[in-house]
Amino acid sequence: MPVCITCKIDKPYEDYHCDKRYGPRRPNSWGEIRDHHVSVCKPCKSAYDKARWTDMPKAKKAVHNDWNGKQRAAKLKKAYGITPEQYDEQFAKQGGGCAICGRPPKSRCLDVDHDHKTGLNRGLLCHMCNRALAFLRNDNGSARRAGEYLLNPPWQSNL
C-alpha cells in the first residue's frame, strides 16, 4: 500500500486519485496493469485545496472571480448573443428554475436553450431537460408522442 506524503499513513489505492496525465490503464511490458496514483491521499488533497482557497488573499479571489465572470460574459455573448444581465433577467422570469421541469440548478448554471435553425433563444433549461430535447431532435411531434407514450404506455394497455 502506498504512503501519503502529507499524513505519512499507509492507505489503500482507493484513497488516492488516479493521475490522468498518464492516459488510460494498459499493461506494461511485464503484462501488469498499473494505475498511476498521485502521492497525496484524497482527504489530504481536499484539506489542502480548502486551506489554499481560504487563505488566498481577497484581492486574488476577486481577480479569480472577475476572470470567471468575464469568461461567462464572453461565452454568453459569443454563443447566444446575450449579456449576463439578460440571462439573470430570464432566470428571474422563470422563477429561478428550469423552464421545463422547474427545478433550480444545483451545481451548474442553467443551459441557454436555442433553436439551431433560427438561432433564437427559447429559455433556460437544466442540463437533463436540454439533453432530452436534443435526443428528441427538437421535434414537436416526437415530444408530443413521448408525452402520449408516458400517459398511455402500450404494454400496460395490452396486459
Characterize the structure shown.
It contains six helices and four strands. It is mainly alpha-helical and 159 residues long. It has helices at residues 42-55, 58-80, 84-93, 127-135, 140-151, 154-158, and strands spanning 16-18, 37-41, 111-114, 121-125. The model has no long low-confidence stretch (mean pLDDT 85). The protein is extended, with a radius of gyration of 24 Å. It folds into two domains: 1-16 and 36-55, no CATH class; 56-158, His-Me finger endonuclease fold, CATH 3.40.1800.10. The strands form two sheets. Strands 1-2 form a two-stranded antiparallel ribbon.
Give the tags.
159 residues, mainly alpha, His-Me finger endonuclease fold, 2 domains, two-stranded antiparallel ribbon, 6 helices, 4 strands, 46% helix, extended
What is the CATH architecture term of the largest domain?
A: 3-Layer(aba) Sandwich
Strand content: 5-15%
Largest sheet: 2 strands, antiparallel
User: How many separate structural domains?
Assistant: 2
* Mean pLDDT figure: 85
Could you give the order of strands across the largest sheet? Answer: 1-2
Oligomer state of the chains in this structure: single chain
* CATH domain class name of the largest domain: Alpha Beta
Shape: extended
Radius of gyration: 24 Å
Query: Helix and strand succession?
Result: EEHHHEEHHH
CATH superfamily of the largest domain: His-Me finger endonucleases
Q: State the end-to-end distance.
A: 56 Å
- Class from secondary-structure proportions: mainly alpha
DSSP helix count? 6
User: Which fold name is given in CATH as the topology of the largest domain?
Assistant: His-Me finger endonuclease fold
Unreliable residue stretches = none
